[in-house]
Every structure is written in structure tokens, then in C-alpha cells.
Amino acid sequence: SERSSKSFNFGAYHSLETIYSWMDGLVAAHPNLVTKEQIGTSYEGRPMYVLKFSTGGDKRPAIWVDSGIHSREWVSQATGVWTANQIASDYGTDASLTSLLKTMDIYLLILANPDGYVHSHTSDRMWRKTRSKNPGSMCRGVDPNRNWDAGFGGPGASTNPCSDSYHGPSPHSEIEVKNVVNLVKNHGNFKSFISIHAYSQLLMYPYGYTCTDALHAAELDSVGRSAVQKLSSLHGTTYKVGSICKIIYQASGGSIDWTYNLGIKYSFAFELRDTGRYGFILPANQIIPTASETWLALKDIMEYVRDHSY
Amino acid sequence: EKVFIGDQVIRVNVESEEQILLLRALEQDTYWDLDFWLHPVNTEVPVDIRVPSSSLYAVKDYLRAHNIQFSVMISNLQELLDEEKAEMEENNM
Which of B1, B9, B37 lies closest to A123 in CB terms? Predict the structure, then answer.
């Protein structure tokens, strides 16, 4: 019954197996819109699947969304599941999304760090990193959001394999990161790259590895503020908007800095809601409100990207 | 499976640059095995720290000694995780 979108409980946290199985159900229910593509395997050999929402064409301009690269941020993956279902069910009924999908594709990587996600379910709920072995250290894992080739190894990343922000031995050393890098480069036509994290209610744009303004900072700021206005309209959740460096801290090797430097102008990262009481242990009854408000912001960004081709 | 019995998450609403520096010093100290959920950045952003039960007394003492105000956001992390797990199992059934 979990395979059916109609009976699946979107207001609950699920295991990797359940989510992967549910993806098959989504594809089966929307065969002309959704495909599940394997982009590689994780360090521990788990498949990594991206859901592709497309109405046809080859390498159309596309929007990338990933969720849960930090495994313990469970509301991110849960939001990814809800969002996938929303895109599929809104196509054909929501005029704006339908028009977007007539000309663009959406790629959604719900589980960006499958090994870490499984580890957070089975062994350590607070696990954040990948699960790769670090030679010469008893500590495992690399922070996959410090592992991208963007100011790699600079401020805001740790050289210590035991740290939760360890950047890894080299850029893209983590297979989970490399799989995404390969897909993005081979595709070559992504216009937007959005990464979903939790928590602390922020919408960020490049850069993180430097506090210098990105070339398009003013435009990205404006797009971000518009998106957050939409988000806040649903439940009144307050967000801050700004560059990673200026509204959190300098952090090198982040995904959206790499994509921005690659030429993907509309690169953003979300930090989803926290009720101020639970941090990473956001109760499951907060999943749907979180995903619903995030969708309004996502849609606003996507519409802007559709209307501002470059 | 790792358990977090008695671990607390404490929230510090930072009031000054001096407090940020003191919290950063705490962050550098690996002895207490602290897990910073939100890092000390500026006075506008709170700092959330998961403190293992074994370090609770010492960490709270450190904060009080430096006149850093804090509140307990999660009083026993394992209780919340148990609730989360029970809810997931129920949902699976």
C-alpha cells in the first residue's frame, strides 16, 4: 500500500527502502511524466536515483533539486518525497507548473546521501556525513557539502576526519558528490540548482567559500526574497535571505558555489524550518507544513528561472 | 545503535562578540564531545549545542562562569528519538 501515492503517508519519516519503493509507484502512476534514473551508486553500493520530470525533448533546460545531503536532516528528505508527489500531481492541473514542464525538465534527487541516511536510521540518528573510510583514521565519513571543487579546503571546512565538516582528501572524492557532478556536467543545460537542507530557516545563494559578492548577487537576492515572501504567506514562517558567507558563516567546498561557478546562475540552498524546539528532530507532524511552504518558494524560483532564460 | 540518554540540546542566544569567541573556544575543545547543531556566528543567530550527558555539568558550568545565558531546548534527546522511532514503527505497521 505504501507504493500507492494515495495511501502513502507523506506526514511520516520513512526508510530508504520505503522511499525507493514509493518512487517506483510514482513512476508507475505517471509514466508519461516521471522516470527514475540511476546516477550511480554510493560508497556502500546503494543505488542513487534521481526522479526526472519531463514531457519530452533531449537535454532541455533543467532545474535540479536535491534533498538531504546531510543525512540527519530528515525533514529535507521527507520534503523531497512530498515535493516529488506535488510536481507529479500538479502537472496538468496547475497552469504554471504545466507550462514550465512544457519547456523545462526537473530533476529531483531525494536521497543525496543514501549511506548516511541508512546509518542515521539504523546506527546513529545524529549522523551527518557520508560513510567512506578515511585512511589512517578511525573516523568515517566526509561532509559532502564541503567536498565540491569550489574553494575546496578553504575556511569553514575541517582537515580532521573526525570532524562533522571534514572536507575529504580531494575535491569530489566522495562518490555521492561525483555522481552528481558527472550528471550535471554531462547534461550541460541546468539553469538552476537548488539544494535542500535543514534547519534554521534560511534561503542562501553563493558564495560560501568567500565573502565576496557573486556577480549576480543582487538578482539572486531579489529572487530569494520573492520566494521567501511566498513561503511565509502560508504559515508565517520567517526566513532570512543572503549569501552563505554573510548570513551563516564562511564555508568552503559547498555544492551551490560549484554549480554557480560552473555557470548555473540560479543556485540556491534552503535551510528548512525549525520550530525553535526540536532542531534535527522535527516531529513528523511538521513535515507537510514544512514541505507545503517550501513548495511555494521552490515554485516561485522555478517560475523565475523559466521566465528569465540565459 | 548509538543512544543519547540524558543528552541535552541547549540553546544560547548570543549577546556579544566576546560570547561568540568563548563559544568558539568551546567548539574547538574536543574533550567534551560537543555537537554544534548551530555554530557561533553572530548575535542574530542562536547557537544550539548537543551536549552528551557526561559533559553536561562541565559545559553548563563553563557557560555560567562566563555569564552566558542559555536555555534547554531538548532535555533528554533519547526520549524524543524513542517517540520518533515508535511513530515510524506504528506507521510502518
Answer: B1
CB contact under 8 A, B73 and A279: yes
Best mutation target among B2, B7, B78 (most A Cβ atoms within 10 Å) is: B2
Which percentage of chain A shows pLDDT scores above 70?
A: 98
Is it the case that residue A2 has pLDDT exceeding 50? no
Hunting for cell 549511506 — which residue is that? A115
**A37-63 pLDDT per residue, tens:** 999 999 999 999 999 999 999 899 999
**pLDDT grade for B93, boundaries at 50, 70 and 90:** confident
Asked about A176 being catalytic, the answer comes back as no
Q: Which strands form B8-12's sheet, in the order they lie side by side?
A: B35-38, B47-51, B8-12, B70-74
Q: Do A277 and B88 touch (CB under 8 A)?
A: no
Side-chain half-sphere CA neighbours of A275 within 13 A: 14
A196 by Cβ neighbours in 10 Å (0-12 / 13-18 / 19+) ranks as: buried
Residue A245, SS3? helix
Tallying the residues shown for chain B, one arrives at 93
Taking the C-alpha atoms of residue A175 and residue A177, their distance in angstroms, rounded to an integer, is: 5
Q: Would you state the cell numbers that stand for residue B81, as one nine-digit string?
A: 528519538
